Amino acid sequence: MEQYKLGEVESSFAALIWDNEPLSSGQLVKLCEEKLSWKKSTTYTVLRRLCQKGIFQNQDGMVTSMISREDYSALRSEEFLNQAFEGSLPKFLAAFSRRKKLTEEEIQKLQQLIQENRR
After folding, report:
1. In what order do the strands lie in the sheet with 56-59?
2. Which of 67, 72, 85, 107 has CB atoms 3.0–4.6 Å from 91's, for a disulfide?
3. Using CB atoms within 10 A of its CB, is residue 43 exposed (0-12), middle (13-18) or buried (19+)?
4. 80, 92 contact by CB (below 8 A)
């Protein structure tokens, strides 16, 4: 799962792709120049790195994701939960709610989520 860890710069780059995919590698270069002030070589270097991690692909000059933003977030959340709370969602919620009380709306949404995920 460590392969999916992105630094701040890589996260900004990934967000550009997720927000605009599918896009040609040429479009990506222009977008990175506009939004990140990157040169073409920087764009291709970071793209190659994220393709090697299995997050994106550049096939025939067309850049698309191999993992959605939502799936990426879910994987990173699972990793955090495992590292910080021994994989225990109740331990996480207990720690979270110690400093910030849940609103009635948040409690209802959590209860709904639990009901939807009962096996």
Report:
1. 23-24, 62-65, 56-59
2. 85
3. buried
4. no
Average confidence (pLDDT) over 32-55: 95
Query: Is the Cβ–Cβ distance between 74 and 85 less than 8 Å?
Result: no
**Centroid of chain to Cα 84:** 19
Runs of H (alpha helix) within the chain: 8-20, 25-36, 40-52, 69-85, 89-99, 104-116
Which of left, alpha, beta for 54 (phi over 0: left; psi -120 to 50: alpha)?
A: left
pLDDT digits (tens, 9 = 90+) for 74-93: 988 888 888 899 988 888 88
Confidence of residue 3 (pLDDT cuts 50, 70, 90): low
